[in-house]
């Protein structure tokens, strides 16, 4: 996923021909994934209540509210850097769907 190293810690939990499951752990405010572009559709499951700051590039930054256990889905092609906007450690699980869409 990442094309530029960040300070968040990725731990690959499952990786096979169909899916890649990674836990992303952010120890402190400002830790980040690093700038990257998603090559696959993916699902994120937050493991905390709080916010993530999303750097979209060219000076654009948005805040995303996370709720523990409430997943969201995004399609391939998303480019961003994900940043911990909280004063506490946080993490999420990312599930990348490695198989192409049927059809």
What do these coordinates show?
The chain is mainly β and 103 residues long. It has one domain: Jelly Rolls. The chain contains no helices and nine strands. It has strands at residues 9-15, 19-26, 36-37, 41-46, 50-57, 60-66, 72-74, 79-84, 90-97. β5 and β6 (60-66) form a beta hairpin. InterPro entries: RmlC-like_jellyroll, RmlC_Cupin_sf. This is Cupin.
Short description:
It comes from Sulfitobacter mediterraneus. The chain is mostly beta strands.
What are the defining features of this structure?
103 residues; 5-stranded antiparallel beta sheet; mainly beta; 9 strands; globular
What is the H level of CATH, i.e. the homologous superfamily? Answer: Jelly Rolls
Oligomeric assembly:
single chain
Structural class: mainly beta
Could you give a short account of the major beta sheet?
5 strands, antiparallel
Instruction: Tell me the overall shape.
Output: globular
Protein name: Cupin
Organism: Sulfitobacter mediterraneus
InterPro entries: RmlC-like_jellyroll (IPR014710), RmlC_Cupin_sf (IPR011051)
